[in-house]
Amino acid sequence: MELAFYWLIEIPVSTTAELVGVTRATAIQWYQYCRDICSTKMLALQQQLGGPGHIVQIDETLMFKRKYHVGHAAEQHWVFGMYDSHSRKGYCLHVQDRSAATLIPIIQQWVAPGSTIYSDQWASYNGLAALGFTHMTVNHQTNFVDPITQACTNQVEAFWSRLKRRLKYISGSVGEMRWSHLDEACY
Hints:
Layout: H1 2-8, H2 13-20, H3 24-45, E1 55-63, E2 77-84, E3 89-95, H4 100-110, E4 116-120, E5 134-138, H5 154-167, H6 177-186
Helix pairs in contact: 1-2, 2-3, 3-6
């Protein structure tokens, strides 16, 4: 029970192992177990964001990448995120690519019909209006907020910032463990 408590209050694994008197490997296993619960709950929730009168901001971002060409060459890992500015809830999912064939089904699954969706002008989002959403875009090359529609992606960008800050310490994690860390942070 102590291990779960320390995980919950975000005590580092090494410190937890020391405090509880277990090996670092045992603490890692318990933390992974807690993250697995978050992953399972995230998949089970399936609660849609948005709805009539709600704005859902969507965006994609690159995670776990090299910065300034420093470090070993890593695969590109795209994460797609949705943030309901009314309920202040967000979800993020690891995606293989940013194509319409990948993103549109995710949007249909996680964003309620009748929602207003704000996005950048990424081509994969072009068909959203035909699917029952009000879709407004912002051109980031000229504005952060569209001067006519007031569309912006500031809240989902802030969501990314918080998420990346939280995940920064796990840059050494390998393989699928990264995605359980992502689920934990989104949960």
